[in-house]
Design the sequence.
């Protein structure tokens, strides 16, 4: 079988065997829950509760702060005990709503009611997705209702479900494809109902044969849905790579997938849309992998948004005594943690705990110009020269090298024998360029 793929990428140890066969287990939080008002791309949400208010599970506690924004919804019933700055998994300090869980999980009226999406208008479906506070759950957290409202819906001819899950160690989407494939297919049908000319494609890496088998069987009589097996390599699940592998269309930083006739959503996003539209259930939970060789009992858990990473780690048996590093997310694009006293947010997918911190243990040396970073880069850039620009803080040269096309996947840093902090350098340069562009725009 020929597998769809892209040019470049790397093959890191995937670590998925630790949790790949572990079924999703529901976990109910014990302590306070923390809900940052900024949990993805867009304007922060605006709190609509205050200290002392009683809230219900499924209640909106912060409303979207603009068109590109999203509702924040309580995942428990209880009492608001404060609104104050708190640390998030990405290391930022964000105003957060603190709720004392009463343990009853009393829902708002209508929570969980069944609906027939085929009897709903397109606008009613979009309104349900917006009300549910759904964002993209596989990346930066772009509001789902905005992504599903392109200027020209008739021009969308592909709805792509990202089932690649190429980030090492993570298995939450895989378990959803294996355990809840019917929800995934219905969610895809709901999205397809918004686009009259679109067909659906579920892209799954070849190292997930059971998911490919289940979804291929489930969609064999669906004329508008197919399953596309993908070559297993990183970053196969990157939006640009996925669009190219499935459609042959090339996406860059100046284009959105919709500009190429595509809508891309990851597995959990599509299932969350199904729950919101067909079951009147807002986004209040994440499927979360806690894994790594420093975790005593690696698991896949269904956790309430707002739950502390610390509680989740305890549920997994805690750390082994020789643990050296904790990461929110996967090893390639995750964020190193200094504490587990941070909450699960909409974009949280995993807690990875490792016995060895390869980054700090390996000494950085000078570039030997081996060219491996160029071969690995899925955006076909020249990281060696981009890093030279970063070291001089030469923004003009960095832009001239197409440095803004970097999406910080980490492939270059992973393959670099000199262990140079390439991704960190590019992240800082891209942020600096965008800051300069904002200043220039403000002066006009």
Sequence:
């Amino acid at each position: 079988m020929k597998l769809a793929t892209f040019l470049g990428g790397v093959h890191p140890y995937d670590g998925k065997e630790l949790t790949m066969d572990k079924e999703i287990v529901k976990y109910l939080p014990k302590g306070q829950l923390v809900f940052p008002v900024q949990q993805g791309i867009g304007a922060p949400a605006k709190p609509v509760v205050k200290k002392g208010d009683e809230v219900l599970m499924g209640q909106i506690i912060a409303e979207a702060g603009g068109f590109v924004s999203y509702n924040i919804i309580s995942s428990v019933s209880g009492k608001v005990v404060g609104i104050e700055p708190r640390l998030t998994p990405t290391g930022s300090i964000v105003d957060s709503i603190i709720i004392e869980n009463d343990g009853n999980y009393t829902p708002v009226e209508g929570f969980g009611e069944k609906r027939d999406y085929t009897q709903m208008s397109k606008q009613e479906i979009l309104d349900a997705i917006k009300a549910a506070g759904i964002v993209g759950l596989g990346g930066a957290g772009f509001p789902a209702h905005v992504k599903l409202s392109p200027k020209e819906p008739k021009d969308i001819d592909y709805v792509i479900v990202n089932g690649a899950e190429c980030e090492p160690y993570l298995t939450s989407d895989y378990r959803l494809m294996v355990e809840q494939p019917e929800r995934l297919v219905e969610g895809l049908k709901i999205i397809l109902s918004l686009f009259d000319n679109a067909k659906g494609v579920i892209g799954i890496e070849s190292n997930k044969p059971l998911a490919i088998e289940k979804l291929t069987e489930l969609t064999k009589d669906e004329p508008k849905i197919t399953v596309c097996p993908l070559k297993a390599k990183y970053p196969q699940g990157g939006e640009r790579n996925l669009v190219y592998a499935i459609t042959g269309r090339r996406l860059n930083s100046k284009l959105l997938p919709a500009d190429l006739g595509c809508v891309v959503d990851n597995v959990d996003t599509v299932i969350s849309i199904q729950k919101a539209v067909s079951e009147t259930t807002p986004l209040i939970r994440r499927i979360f992998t806690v894994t790594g060789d420093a975790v005593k009992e690696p698991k896949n858990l269904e956790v309430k948004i707002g739950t502390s990473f610390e509680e989740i780690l305890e549920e997994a048996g805690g750390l082994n005594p020789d643990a050296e590093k904790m990461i929110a997310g996967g090893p390639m694009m995750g964020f190193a943690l200094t504490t587990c006293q941070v909450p699960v947010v909409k974009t949280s997918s995993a807690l990875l705990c490792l016995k060895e911190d390869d980054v700090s243990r390996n000494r950085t040396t000078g570039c030997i110009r081996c060219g491996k970073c160029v071969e690995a880069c899925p955006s076909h850039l020249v990281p060696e020269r981009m890093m030279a620009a970063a070291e001089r803080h030469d923004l003009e040269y960095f832009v001239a090298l197409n440095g803004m096309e970097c999406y910080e996947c980490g492939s270059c840093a992973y393959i670099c024998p000199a262990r140079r902090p390439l991704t960190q350098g590019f992240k800082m340069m891209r942020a600096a360029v965008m800051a300069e562009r904002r200043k220039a725009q403000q002066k006009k």
Observations:
- The first strand starts at residue 24 and ends at 26.
- DSSP finds 14 helices and 17 strands in the chain.
- The chain has a mean pLDDT of 96.
